[in-house]
Amino acid sequence: MDCWKGPVSHSWIYPTVIICANGFFTTMRPSESFLTPYLTGPDKNLTIEEVTNQILPVWTYSYLALLFPVFLLTDYVRYKPVLLLQGTSLIVTWLLLLFAHGVVAMQVVEFFYGMVTATEVAYYAYIYSVVSTQHYQRVTSYCRSVTLVAATVAAVLGQLLVSLANVSYFYLNAMTLASVSLAFLCAFFLPMPRRSMFFHRKDAPEPLPGPDKGLPAAAAPRPPSCPEERSPDAAAGGPSPQPQAGNARPQGHMLSVLLQLATDLRDCYGSRKLLYWSLWWALATAGFNQVVNYVQVLWDLRAPSHSSAVYNGAVEAIATFLGSATSMAVGYVKVNWDLSGELALGIFSALDAGSLLLMHFTDNIWACYAGYLAFKACYMLLITIATFQIAVNLSMERYALMFGFNNFVALVIQTILTVVVVDSRGLGLDISTQFLIYGSYFTVITGIFLIRSVYTIISIKCRNTSVAAESTAP
Question: Which of 48, 208, 348, 374 has the fewest CB atoms lying closer than 10 Å?
Fold first, then answer.
């Protein structure tokens, strides 16, 4: 709102508090861990096949269709309008979940939820457009931490209300609606940024820390749920400045920005190291998103919610904690990732594959829960390493661009998996067989990167041997 023009709105504290409040209430969704039991229970009375093969796939298609245009729109309109759009989409999603019925209505829910996930980029990109570079590390920490706290609190609260107070899933969804409505109100009080990363760049960007001062805060390792946590300012060696909007027609300016983005993508993927890390990122993220999207259906098969105690919220809370812990642990591990990185990708991808195969072959719900916890912890560990390896030599704009493009490729792969494996117009496989496919998929990823790692290690050893031999030669 433009009425907030006072000095407080120009400090870094005010926008940080408001965006963190927005992030907290957006992520504070206690009903989310119990979506499948709610849809298949007496409130909606849908079958497990309708949920799996007709409703949930719509989210993937919606997300894919909206991701690229929303990515560009977010930067073009300078974030705040997209945060308002996200809030509106969340409110519509939960109003429909509460009061609409039938397969078509739930497919509309998934469409709007695809809009929600596509607009998440605005939350992480907004704050860098309204604070100066010396505050990046602090605001990055706040914005990321508040979403982790909210996700954990929501999962624990939902579990306690279901297990101890016997609260129905309907009222959990009503609580979620109240929370996302508060997030929408918070977005109104955000100051409107004057700049953005690509379309509204500053004429004189602030200097960023040089190589001897380490990475900027926004380049710190983080899980994939933080898309485009990047500053609008250019780092040394980054893309050339874009033409200013006032110096060219809007159409010409937009075309020049798009051409610059394409050039930057070509340059980034010209690095073989970045190409292989990005390949793992896209392949693994596609599988991860697919597992997270359908794991509640598998749990409901192993322990039907109408006749068994449901502990989805507790499991999600523990998974969030383990994911955060493994991500933080990466910062304290001293490893030559150039030598051992691809080996780590292969080994931990093998653990992911084993966890998914365990979830397929076991009928025990506790083994299923344990497999999911191991799977998510391994993925979060690896995606943090991949994030750092990709970000370490890139400017902020190029990192954001690669992050977005890698996620787009992952979404394309996920869409192919959905169409072939899940959708009723494809194979329409049952949920247990789907997890066999996902386990096999991660087995293929394991093979690719174990072979690649052996080749890399042997090549480096041979090179070192040759250099040693030349140095000792008379």
Answer: 48
Tokens 């705040």, residue located: 80
DSSP tag of 325? H
Q: How is residue 104 written in tokens?
A: 């078509």
- The closest alpha carbon to 37, from 360, 302, 356, belongs to 302
Residue with tokens 């992480």: 124
In whole angstroms, what is the distance from residue 106 CA to residue 395 CA? 41
Residue 193 DSSP one-character state: P
* Residue 76 and residue 121 in contact, taking contact as beta carbons nearer than 8 Å: no
State which H helix or E strand residue 157 sits in: helix 136-163
Determine contact, residues 237/211, Cβ cutoff 8 Å: no
Contact 108, 186 (CB under 8 A): no
Nearest to 34 by CA among 145, 119, 161: 161
What is this structure's pTM? 0.82
CB atoms within 10 A of CB 77: 18
Q: Which residue has the tokens 């298609």?
A: 61
